[in-house]
């Protein structure tokens, strides 16, 4: 009787799925990683910049002499924009505000601020480096005896380098051809800036 019970128990254990041997359990699925900027430059971005500005031009009045202008000084400000990326081509728009202290001490002329609205087209070299060209419109505030507005077109080139997925450094050189009038005088100027930039991609 005991011999039959033991034999039956062993037979049952051998045929039981739970006790027949180790069960293969599939490995867990890897975590899903969401890339905030899958194409590296295809993102909203914003940052700060600091640099140097220089310009020249003319102050003129009908029937009077033309006074040459020559001014320079520091510039600093902020920028924001959005890039769209298609393969290695990057294009988008940007708005930039620069506070300036570009002064001609002889003529008493000063450029106080610059607001650039521009389109950019760039070429991405790998995942980290981009070179771009830009063009657009600029509105400026200047002073010559009194404050007045100037405007005109801008053009420039620049580079950006990604230090991480979200942080980048860059350099930008922009030229502007601006015109304005104040108190019967007409002003035509070229305003150039060279800046170092630091920003984040979102």
TrEMBL record:
Signal peptide range in chain numbering: 1-20
Gene3D superfamilies documented for this protein: 2.40.160.20
InterPro entries with a match to the protein in the record: Beta-barrel_OMP (IPR027385), OMP/PagP_B-barrel (IPR011250)
Keywords annotated in UniProt: Signal
Pfam families (alphabetical): OMP_b-brl
Domain Outer membrane protein beta-barrel span(s) in chain numbering: 44-202
Protein name in the entry: Outer membrane beta-barrel protein
Species the sequence originates in: Gymnodinialimonas phycosphaerae
